[in-house]
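Can you give me the bound-state structure? Components:
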Amino acid sequence: MSDAAALEVRNLVKHYRVGTGITGGGSIVHAVDDVSFEVRRGELLGLVGESGSGKSTVANCVMRLTEPTSGEILLRGSDITHLSRREMRPLRRELHMVFQDPYSSLNPRMSCGAIVGEPLRLHGIAKGGELRTRVEETFDLVGLRSELRYRYPHELSGGQRQRVGLARALILKPSVLIADEPVSALDVSVQASILNLLRDLQREMGFSCLFITHDLATVEFLCDRVAVMYLGKLVELAPREELFASPQHPYTQALLSAAVVPDPEEQRTRKRTVLEGDVPSPLAPPSGCRFHTRCPLEPRSAPRSSEEEPPLTEFTPGHLVACHLVSAGRPAPRLVEEPAKIA
Amino acid sequence: MSVVDATALTSPRARRRVLLRKRFLRRPMAVVGLVIVVVFVVVAALAPWVAPYSASATDFNAILAHSSSKHLLGTDELGRDELSRLIWGGRASMQAGFLATLLAMIVAVPIGMVAGYYRGWVDTAIARITDVLLAFPFLILAVGLAAILGPSLTNATLALGIASMPGLIRIARGEVLALREEDFVPAAVANGANDFTIIFRHILPNMTSTLLVQATLTIPGAIIGEAALSFLGLGVQPPTPSWGVMLQDAQSYLSQDSRLAVFPGLAIVIVSLAFNVLGDGLRDIFDPRTTR
Amino acid sequence: MAEPLLEVSDLSVRFDTDDGPVHAVDKLSFTLNRGEVLGIVGESGCGKSVTCMSLVRLLPETAVISGNAVFDGVDLLALPPKRLRAIRGRDISFVFQEPMTSLNPVFRIGHQIGEVLTRHLGLSRSDARTRTIELLDLVRIPSPAQRIDEYPHQLSGGMRQRVMIAMALACNPRVLIADEPTTALDVTIQAGVLDLMRDVRERLGTSIVLITHNLGVVADIADRVVVMYAGRKAEEAPVGDLYAAPQHPYTIGLLGAIPRPYHGDGERPRLREIPGRVPSLRELPQMCAFADRCPRADELSRSQVPELRFVRPDHLVACFHPGPE
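Here's the bound-state model for the whole set.
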């Protein structure tokens, strides 16, 4: 048991049953399958994936908003995987979350001050004057004018609401913060201020953060290490610079090449890969390597890729990849790229 | 930046109230409904002071009389003042309506909320039972229950309350099903809130508009239900008047003087329509998608 | 040679709501030339979607629209509804952001596309079916002859968006207005849809108005860009110029807010923030709408509305102090 990790996830599996009636039956959504990683003390780990990757499910499991099907979740070394609601309560001071939707994550019937103060009240840590003071301090910490305490969420802008969400999550000074797409619903200029804020707060308060997003540029700005998920599986995990400088897994390569860059010259001349087809359904994930149905390198890895799941192996120290074509010291081939058609 | 405007000085609650009031006033039907409801309620509440006669004061010299200065709406078959009986009767009918609805809300809303929040077998059990009850027409259910309980105003109120519950359970359940998907619910869990706190402190306050509208629409059903029960002899027992009792009494005299049936009937219709129109108007103005 | 296809002048849109008027668009003018992709960029509330929806009258009753939008010699804003309906879907078509809600879930996609064909072009059922298969092929949907009979829920998000595009292209429109067409899509799918749009422009010569908040998408596909702020046009330029030499402080701020790879040695710089908030649209400020958030604001910007002026050929800015950082 590593006590250097603030949060550790081991062999996490989460399957959902859908379409069941009284008589049973229905199918299984393989949302997360055997995912393992750790978030070290004081680090920002980015978890990247597109829809169906399972990244939000990982967040829900880690936050114990739902119970994993199997696997373990360790918060600062203690196993929280199967704790009951009541047993989790005291641990909720150590672990909190910021949500994606600034509109639905705040109760429209509560004033912002009440929303931010609720953790203090619920855990019986402060009340009355002391509670008010701490709420004011936290408002200040996230850059909100203290008179906004009396306002209701619908009177605030998206960026301000997200700050309220951050304030609520940080008021108890947790050691781990889960941020599930916290800026995706915000305008570009507002995203910038929230990202800056998050970075500042993390440095100041030293919490560990699992930052979930689909946007690679954000991850590159903010995170120390990056994990990439595809269809419920972890396909690559590496320190930030290395992931962007030499991505190994074909999916990571495709993701990086598909991202649009705000520079017309660069965007139109750079070579990129466009993946064919759609993401398969998590109800019936492909056999073997889940990416093999869309992988441009599949001819080279067949037939193994359709029969056997690639294990997560260490490519270089700290850089893990789950691909049959990658092993220690032997990098993956670069994807065949076509230049973007110049308009 | 902050454009300092007057609206920043008034509280958000006050501004919302102003907005709702403006919207309401733009709906003349709803306003009329509200006025009628208020008039009826006030008159019924002030019955002891407003009614010219007591409900049972008979005057055998003036049986089945037409309207006169002494009896504004005439008298019934026992010489009792029709207007007074309407007023006292309204008191009984509307009391039954309000109390039955209140009872239904107090019991049904928590049940519906529990079903919607917990899902699983609790939800299945509650939902199926509710579905079975909903298969019965409201009046049939009320009559059945009243028959079991025995004839009296209290029992009728009880029966009507119980019969109104299935519909309200379903509405409450639906609201909770939608609201629990909002992110502030897992946020509350992350805060360490227990289920009770989440249900009553987070979800319930977000349901109040819907519940208000539903109550307004349930009351007329209960009023009509009381009238039906009393008409069948299962509710208020004569000589205590209620509109249903008056209708029952008027039956034998229909060919002679239909007045006795028309007045209570009209009263029931007007009040029910007024509540319905008011309820529709309220539902409209609370809907965030309404543009005017 | 630039040939104007759609000329919008002095377009203003005001919504009369319960709480008072909201001035969503204030005297906006722009031109779409034949065969070009015009990007309209801005953050939420800037009026970009309202602008385009007003052109084909997709706005609610509470909207009060003024100005001109001349398409093919006809002012769209002055047309009687019947004539507008003939143009809508046929000469000017729309692609929306959310493909699931813009496709009717209870009809097969073949039926929905076919409806457009029979209505506007009067094609018979079998002709419509043939053309539909052609269209599905054009938007690169694999096995179009099978997929034509599927329902929207059987398709993925990216596929549905392609179906939307197919429907929009059914009558070979001259103008395609795409409102945030890739915002709801995954990055890898977005790349394919953008390629498709580029293809459409090349092969069919369709002119495209692309509305988005994503500056990367604009960089990828647009020829000219209009930057909107608070219902007004802040800057307009050919795409290369806009990114290489933005003149309006808002554009500069916007470009600076986007995270970009950093390869330097020292501490990584903060992202550029734009302080303050978008002004309320309830009044039309008689000053530069951006003044309260602008580092270059002065007496002049706070007392007058800046006019659009050429700072370079083809490059317009509405600012009293335009220029690079």
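A couple of observations. The two ends of chain A are 56 Å apart (CA to CA). The interface with chain B takes residues 22, 60, 63, 65, 85-86, 88-90, 92-93, 95-97, 99-101, 104-110, 118-119, 122-123, 150-152, 154-155, 165, 168-169 of chain A (CB under 8 Å).
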